[in-house]
Design brief:
The chain is of the alpha/beta class and 274 residues long. The protein folds into 2 domains: 88 residues, 3-Layer(aba) Sandwich (Rossmann fold), CATH 3.40.50.10860; 116 residues, NAD(P)-binding Rossmann-like Domain (Rossmann fold), CATH 3.40.50. A 6-stranded parallel β-sheet has the order 1-11-8-7-5-6, with helices on both faces. Strands 3-2-4 form a 3-stranded parallel β-sheet, with helices on both faces. Strand 5, helix 7 and strand 6 form a beta-alpha-beta unit. Helix 6 packs across helix 9. The longest helix is centred in the last third of the chain and has 20 residues. It is globular, with a radius of gyration of 19 Å. The relative contact order is 0.16.
Length: 274
């Protein structure tokens, strides 16, 4: 069985991006907004700041209190929309329950929406005119880029707007035959028996327990088991043709694609066509 090393792929992307930004003397800036002090969110924000520093992207991190209301948060976004020195805007999720995340994400200028969550960018993805797309699915597609996906049976387990739905569309765009399943799917075992590619993004520890021997398995999940160990959505000892591992698989790719899309947003704002 081959381990798909997301960390080394991500480092390659970041290295190439750093060279391009340096060679073109581009001045790229990413604004990151964090609401509250959730420890996991703080770690994710710090990882993004470190990656940006590595490739030569300036960061402007705004930390707002947990109790901030939706309107002041949207006003911060609007000011960043109008700031021509800011090329990308990212709101760290999840947001507190009293804030409408969709309203906040849709307040971001679509050309600065480096997470690809704005309804306009989502719509472009569904209609074959993708521009800025969700970073985790983009990272998954990069991990699969050396495969001929045409005609392959691809099973996506998980239906979120962040991973499940967009990766299903991206696989369709590469002519895969896609099945979108979830935790309530009745015949999941049968679907796994026939899937050439499995994308596990259901958010349940070690939910996927078997697959075809020659399947390629991408594990998107980040969970804690009863002993506090970091585990994915796929059983740790699952045997298959190739798979990603947790940690070190999809996570680094998500951050790398965020940096790439921040540079892409910069280029779009300069009039480039992607």
């Amino acid at each position: 069985m081959r381990i798909i090393d997301g960390r080394s792929r991500a480092n390659e992307i970041l290295s190439n991006l750093a060279k391009e930004i340096n060679d073109t003397k581009s001045k790229v800036k990413l604004a990151v907004i964090q609401v509250g002090n959730d420890p996991a969110s703080s770690v994710y924000v710090r990882n993004k700041e470190l990656a940006a520093e590595k490739v030569g992207i300036e960061t402007d991190t705004r930390k707002l209190p947990f109790y901030v209301n939706e309107e002041p948060l949207i006003q911060v976004i609007k000011s960043l929309n109008e700031d021509e020195s800011v090329n990308g805007i990212l709101v760290q999720l999840p947001l507190p329950d009293h804030i409408d995340a969709n309203a906040v994400l849709d307040a971001i200028d679509p050309l600065k929406d480096v997470d690809g969550f704005h309804e306009s960018n989502m719509g472009r993805l569904w209609t074959g005119r993708s521009r800025l797309v969700p970073c985790t699915p983009a990272g998954i597609m990069h991990l699969l880029k050396d495969l001929d996906l045409a005609g392959k049976n691809a099973l996506v387990v998980g239906r979120s707007n962040i991973v499940g739905k967009p990766i299903a569309q991206m696989l369709l765009d590469e002519d895969a035959t896609v099945t979108l399943a979830h935790s309530k799917t009745a015949n999941l075992d049968d679907l796994l028996d026939h899937a050439d590619i499995v994308i596990a993004a259901v958010g349940i520890p070690e939910f996927i327990t078997h697959c075809k021997e020659d399947a390629i398995v991408i594990d998107v999940g980040i969970n804690r088991d009863r002993d506090g160990r970091l585990v994915g959505d796929v059983k740790r000892d699952l045997q298959c043709r190739a798979k990603t591992i947790v940690p070190g698989g999809v996570g680094p790719m998500t951050v790398a694609m965020l940096m790439k899309q921040t540079y892409d947003a910069y280029r779009l704002q300069k009039g480039a066509r992607l």
